[in-house]
Amino acid sequence: MTTIVNTSAGLSSTPAAGLPSNAVSVRGLDKVYGGKTPKHALVAVDLDIPRGSLFGLLGPNGAGKSTLINILAQLVNKTAGTVRIWDLDLDRQPRDAAAAIGVVPQELNVDPFFTPRELLDLQAGLFGVPKRERRTLDILATVGLADKAEAYARTLSGGMKRRLMVAKAMVHNPPVLVLDEPTAGVDIELRQQLWAHVRALNAAGTTVLLTTHYLEEAEELCDRIAIINHGKVIACDTTAALLQRLDNKELVFILAGDLAAVPESLRRYGAELPSPRRLVLRYAPSRVSAGEILAAVQASGLQVADMTTLEADLEDVFLQLTRGAHVGEGAAAGASGPKR
Ligand code: ADP
Ligand code: MG
């Protein structure tokens, strides 16, 4: 197997000769799981992941994220379409394509009787990394596990195991790192640590693709986001542009007394009165400040008992992006189904 050197390091922002512009490129990707009731898990997916990006694949449970990741990792066979990883065709150069990518699967499968050092050495052996080129302890240090090199994996916490999986995916120094739901079930402190690791890897030149069903996570971490639902990519843009499209918030005022009608002065904020003591105002934060709305409500003389704000969440995102379009069969977008 050819060893693919991570030539992208430090070059992510400069157009470098010989390096692909897209780390991953997918065209017309289809996946149908067989069985009694065949499941069309991916439907004609086109996706480009630019080299150097920190790319988020965002979608609810069952959207097809893991299916896509597992096809890239060659753990699942695609039904149709083409996949190129680091410009290597998955069908024609499967071994080279595998060498260009490191995948951290959603499920933690750490052998409990090995130490982290042994696990990484084993993995390096599998990828044919010569002994003198192995950087086992460096990699463990990168993920904050240097002092756990000789500990049995079964004694590691869930967060440490997750980081060990990241280390395992990095032993062959792939230019593309894929993380499937890296922070699912990870507590807040560890989530911050993992995010910091991911950011550092990306800053050092590694293209990172991660999946998540948290809008907030994609928003905070990723420079580009693709949204997938029912196996279809329904949006793909820079994070900033995507959030722009979701530019709306709601301010909900609970009133101290009953109101018969929306005051004239608040109509321009799209005010609605779903009940006599509940006034809802919708606005685009990029154009109107919450302060302006608060001032308008005060000026109208209303007695406010309480207020809350609502931001677009993943469910709203899907509703907005798929409005008018056929959303597909099954559960409503955003609903979380049982894990397989
Ligand atoms: P996600 O990772 O976004 O939660 P998955 O890719 O795991 O979604 O699943 C997409 C769809 O394909 C779901 O409806 C799931 O039930 C189905 N699916 C996933 N793996 C299999 C499998 N091995 N056999 C049959 N159906 C599957
Ligand atoms: Mg998944």
Let me know the number of strands: 14
Q: Oligomeric status of the shown chains? A: single chain
Number of helices: 10
Instruction: Indicate the overall shape.
Output: elongated
Contiguous low-pLDDT stretches (5 residues minimum) are 7-14, 324-340
Helix fraction by DSSP (H/I, runs of at least 4): 25-40%
* Radius of gyration, CA atoms, in whole angstroms: 24 Å
Task: Quickly give the structural class.
Answer: alpha/beta
H/E element order? EEEHEEHEHHHEHEHEEHEEEHEH
| Tally of separate domains | 2
Please give the structural blueprint.
Elements (H helix, E strand, L loop, with lengths): L21 E12 L5 E12 L3 E5 L6 H8 L7 E6 L2 E2 L4 H6 L1 E4 L11 H11 L9 H7 L15 H13 L5 E5 L7 H16 L3 E6 L2 H7 L2 E6 L2 E7 H7 L3 E7 L16 E4 L2 E6 L6 H10 L4 E8 L2 H9 L18
Parallel strand pairs: 3-8, 3-9, 6-7, 7-8
Antiparallel strand pairs: 1-2, 1-4, 4-5, 9-10, 11-13, 11-14, 12-13
Helix pairs in contact: 3-5
The chain binds adenosine-5'-diphosphate and magnesium ion.
